[in-house]
Design a protein that fits this description.
The complex is a heterodimer of chains A (about 475) and B (about 55).
Chain A: E1 3-7, H1 11-24, E2 29-34, E3 38-40, H2 45-48, H3 55-58, E4 59-61, H4 62-69, E5 72-82, E6 93-98, E7 107-111, E8 114-117, E9 122-123, H5 143-161, E10 166-172, H6 180-196, E11 203-208, E12 223-226, E13 229-232, H7 233-243, E14 247-249, E15 252-258, E16 261-266, E17 271-275, E18 278-282, E19 285-286, E20 291-292, H8 301-304, E21 342-344, H9 375-393, E22 410-416, E23 424-430, E24 451-454, H10 456-473
Parallel strand pairs in A: 1-2, 1-8, 2-5, 5-20, 8-21, 10-11, 10-18, 11-14
Antiparallel strand pairs in A: 3-4, 5-6, 6-7, 9-19, 12-13, 15-16, 16-17, 22-23, 23-24
Helix pairs in contact in A: 1-9
Chain B: H1 21-26, H2 30-51
Classes of the chains: A alpha/beta (about 475), B mainly alpha (about 55).
Chain lengths: ~475, ~55
């Protein structure tokens, strides 16, 4: 019997656990270690953050689902990986620290034959002084953060109904953030809700982002065919902002947050301030702080992890100029090059480089979006790795499934409102996520599979996806028929 | 109620394309949007199938 240990139960880790168990059955053991008792459909946290959904609607307890599927669940936080075991015991293991009530702080060694690191990101609010719920800004990165944001938003709505004017600031809280799409969607939800409450004219909405241009979204933006032109997403995004009377600041690194005020500098090196009554700024992501130790107690952390804390996999990490970046640099199997039984999926793997063009301002501050590894690509990677490991357990000598971000696409729907007749949304797809100028020399992407559209129909799709993906994550009948 | 906005050359919004009233009305037209819903589903499914090859 083989044992697969999965660290993390987000989109990628949970998908990997479901497919590994389905493929391997009861002959082999699948263990999931996660510090959180609940699964969270993070894309819908945007709706929690404006009070349209409750925490219960976007989360569910993991243990009953895993019990039903025959997966072992340990509520704990992974701390240290021993890829070659310890002295006298070559069996690899991970030291975890329990987080469930009654066992908090208890440490345990969890042994494995195959390891999938799906630990997701550390929300690095500390990178910017004053950033985050413990500082002066809101977050929608967790359901609890989103509830707090919603309460503060609704308080401001009441004050605006009483005649006060308020300033809203939404975007990224550092020069090295990703997930601009979440900030974009939240901003348009705020706009939609403010209109619904009849106080939009009392609100100044402003977007601040580390993207050099609107519509970059950490992937350098995308082109779509529309009106006889192949047009960049910058044009469409600026149109959406202009239509709703929302101003924007791009190429911005937020350096400091104080009560009601941010300090930032831009790509030209200019420094400025902006005041706010409500700010939701996405933090930069980092690795969760896992360490690695050899059997003699050697520190192997730098052998297994990149300096940003993400795990090294089969990517080409050699530094090279932007113009020489290639889709081939991106990992295909997500297998660690040193230890063939270690894999990393979702946000936990170290990308070879950015996707957007890297930029540094005259003061030496890097200001560029980091690559998104969430949503559809994240789930596809988790599934591919699970199926590869299942085949390796059955005798394959190397991973059998690939999921390079230069060979898979992504779909994104940014939606506002909870009414089926009055919602508003923008839907977009791109293929592939990482531009491949060898296959698609003109823009790096296949424009037959990249499109964008605004309308109620896209809003219905967002609703559909919300319920479909939660159904799938709960492992209900024929869950595996629903694509990632 | 129809939004009445004015775009002036000293605002950054002035330089972006603005949807016409017709385009805006079609975004909420239930019949047209049902058709678009089917079209978007088809396009997304094609992209997903290509990604899974």
């Amino acid at each position: 019997m083989s044992r697969i240990l999965i660290l993390g139960a987000g989109v990628s880790g949970h998908t990997a656990a479901q497919f590994a168990k389905r493929k391997l059955g009861s002959k082999h053991e699948v263990i999931v270690v996660s510090p959180n008792a609940n699964w969270n459909w993070i894309p819908s946290n945007v709706w929690v953050g404006v009070g349209l959904m409750t925490k219960k609607q976007v989360t569910f307890p993991l243990k009953p689902v895993y019990d039903k599927m025959g997966i072992t669940f340990i509520q704990a936080k992974a701390q240290t990986i021993y890829p070659e075991g310890s002295k006298g015991n070559p069996s690899p293991f991970v030291v975890v620290e329990h987080t469930e009530d009654g066992h908090q702080g208890k440490k345990e060694e969890v042994h494995f034959d195959y390891l999938i690191n799906a630990t997701g990101p550390k929300l690095n609010f500390g990178a910017t002084p004053g950033l985050g719920p413990e500082g002066h800004t809101e977050s929608i990165c967790t359901a609890d953060h989103a509830i707090d944001a919603s309460e503060k938003f609704m308080n401001l709505v009441e004050e605006m109904k009483a005649g006060q004017e308020k300033r809203f600031l939404v975007g990224t809280g550092h020069g090295m953030c990703t997930c601009q799409g979440a900030a974009f969607e939240y901003l348009f939800n705020l706009d939609f809700e403010l209109r619904k409450h009849g106080v939009r004219e009392k609100a100044d909405l402003h977007y601040i982002s580390n993207e050099a241009n609107l519509g970059d979204f950490g992937v350098g933006g995308m082109h779509i065919k529309r009106g006889g032109y192949k047009t960049h997403s910058k044009v469409f995004t600026e149109s959406l902002f202009s239509e709703q009377k929302i101003n924007w600041t791009t190429g911005a690194h937020v350096a400091k947050v104080e009560s009601g005020k941010i300090e930032y500098e831009d790509l030209q090196g200019d420094k400025d301030e902006r005041s706010f009554d409500f700010a939701m700024l996405i933090p930069p992501f980092g690795g969760v702080g896992l360490t690695a130790v050899g059997p003699e107690g050697e520190d192997w952390t730098t052998r297994l992890f990149a300096p940003n804390g993400f795990m090294k996999v089969d990517a080409i990490y050699e530094a090279k100029p932007y113009k020489e970046w290639s889709g081939a640099d991106w990992p295909k199997t997500y297998q660690n090059p040193t230890w063939s039984n270690l894999f990393a999926v979702g946000i936990a793997f170290a990308p070879p480089h950015f996707i957007s063009q890297p930029r540094v301002n005259p003061n030496g501050i890097p200001i560029n979006p980091t690559p998104p590894r969430t949503g559809m690509p994240s789930a596809m990677i988790g599934k591919a790795v699970a199926l590869s490991i299942a085949d390796m357990i059955k005798g394959a000598t190397a991973p059998t499934h690939h999921a390079s971000m230069a060979e898979i696409g992504a779909a994104c729907v940014a939606s506002a409102g909870n009414s089926l007749t009055k919602g508003r949304a923008a839907a977009m797809t791109m293929f592939p996520v990482v531009p491949d100028y060898e296959k698609y020399p003109e823009t790096g992407r296949d424009l037959n599979y990249s499109f964008g559209e605004v309308g109620l129909g896209a809003h219905w799709i967002k609703f559909l996806l919300h319920y479909l993906f939660i159904y799938k994550a709960k492992g209900k009948a024929f869950w595996y028929m629903i694509p990632e | 109620m129809k939004d009445e906005y004015h775009y002036r050359a000293d605002e950054q919004q002035y330089y972006a394309p603005i949807p016409s009233d017709f385009v805006k009305s079609m975004r909420t037209n239930l019949i047209w949007q049902f058709i678009r819903f089917l079209v978007i589903n088809y396009k997304m499914t094609r992209m997903i199938m290509k990604s899974h090859k």
